[in-house]
Amino acid sequence: MPPGWAQFAADRQGGSPGSMLAHYRRALAERRRLLRWLPPSMSWAKAPAGVLAFNRGRLSVACNFLQRPVSLPAAGRLMLASREGARLEGRRLTLSANSAAWLDTVPAG
Question: Which of these, 31, 68, 96, 97, is most buried using a 10 Å CB contact count?
């Protein structure tokens, strides 16, 4: 293993709520929760250049590949974001640079 990579080992990240391991565990838990409502197919959503967005049933995903924050139309409940700074205000999703977010488009209740 290259020097400095020990911090990325699962046993080192296990107790850190901000670690990549914790992020993936949250993502898998959300996916399991939504699985029964997710159809086998997805559709691409309109997004600005440098952003990839798609919908799969009630799940909407946006990935910002740019080196700057972006804002795009969105609706639902912000479930998960890969970096701090993701916000859903009104019907606009703001994503930090190089980040992604999952939204549940069905209101809780």
Answer: 96
